[in-house]
Amino acid sequence: MAVAGAILLLPTISGCATTESGFANSQTSSNVSLGETQTTVSSSAKPSSSSIDPCELVSAEDLADVGEFETEYQEGGGSRYCVWQEGFESGGNGFSFSVGVRDSQGIDAVRDIGGGVDPTEVNQRPAVKTEDPVSGDCMLAVKVSDSSRIDVTVLGEDGDGDSCGLAEVIAGMVEPRLPELP
Q: Over the stretch 92-118, which tens digit does the pLDDT of each residue have?
């Protein structure tokens, strides 16, 4: 009788194996679905600015007529940025500027540094600029997407000079190297 009971359970066990096979097919379909979801999440979560290297947005050739600059890559404050500083040894005055990439802040998130936030354009691309009227510092933010931007920052000389004019020139060199607007 025990043998007969074992024989009767055998079809049930092998039936589980058949059902298991069907379950495996279901998991495979589920994995495909999950893979598609992961791809979608991954591509929508990765901003178009994430592949931009800020140190490659301005070349030595771009600055050749102005002087020799040393560059330094840095990260902080929600951005990756590159600082260019004109060397004193090449006859420069130490002028510096930076170009930063903000992957999760669009131009609408630019904070006023004292003189208001003014809409503008760089080569017909939406941008905003803000200037500190006391120090003369200027930051010009150029749109990469609704949620990312490039910041060009030029430090002023105690309000003397045209730091925003210089930021506009630099942004004009940078803009053609940016991805097309979505």
A: 677 899 999 999 999 999 999 999 999
